[in-house]
Amino acid sequence: xxxxxxxxxxxxxxxxxxxxxxxxxxxESYHRPSKLADFWENNSExxxxxxxxxxxxxxxxLGISTRGKLGALTNxxxxxxxxxxxxxxxxxxxxxxxxxxxxxxxxKVSTEGHLYNGFNLIAADLSTAKGxxxxxxxxxxxxxPIVLTPGTYGLSNALLETPxxxxxxGKQLFTEAVExxxxxxxxxxxxxxxxxxxxxxxxxxDPAIEDQGQEYIQPILSKYAAVCVRSxxxxxxxxTIILVDADxxxxxxxxxxxxxxxxxxxxxxxxxxxxx
Length: 276
Description:
The chain is α+β, with helices and mostly antiparallel strands. It has one domain: Penicillin V Acylase, Chain A. It contains six helices and 13 strands. Strand 3 and strand 4 form a beta hairpin. Helix 3 (165-179) packs antiparallel against helix 4 (186-197). One of its GO terms (cellular component) is cytosol. This is Transport and golgi organization 2 homolog. It holds the Pfam family TANGO2. One of its GO terms (biological process) is protein secretion. InterPro entries: TANGO2.
């Protein structure tokens, strides 16, 4: 499970405004092996964390390339998973390494969506010269992907903008931080967005989560209904902030849990300028 908030404006009016601000949590079992975000050893254009689970290795939940391709994934909450379904993390990895534009890629994915358990996929082409295009597809929703209009969005483990209480609460906190973004030093903005991602206030009751998750969600509902999920063996393991300014300069900040210890975290920041 994960949660993503993002705002994009391909043509910001102010020089101090960001074209894209994205804040995301990865929620996962603390024991699932993965690599911290870094540029790939076999492809130095791509920056992401990597899943190292047997049979799923090489997939990722969120990544960006110097060519301007960005992909982000959340699982769709469903009570029962198909054990033989394909690993969803490959959907992001394949986009980051493909030459297809975001909409064409999602149209291809939409024909193969039945091979996976439920997912939501954001695919974007960020181009300083041509303008940014951000697209969305969920295999439990409409059959065709959509091109998003500029604005602010929230995505959790239902379809895009489904008004779960934790999503609405987190989106409001995110929006408030974004509204201050032009007047804040970059490091302060990142700190404030990390605070949004680490809010553990449960937003209950929420019949929408209970209806969708059914018996699966009941044991963890009080923890799961917060932006930051925190339980004994499962929860928010990674916070990621991506900022893209008017000139195409990217700041990618990842805060990751170390050694399955909820009190031990490491923060790394990467910066580069889009080649597109």
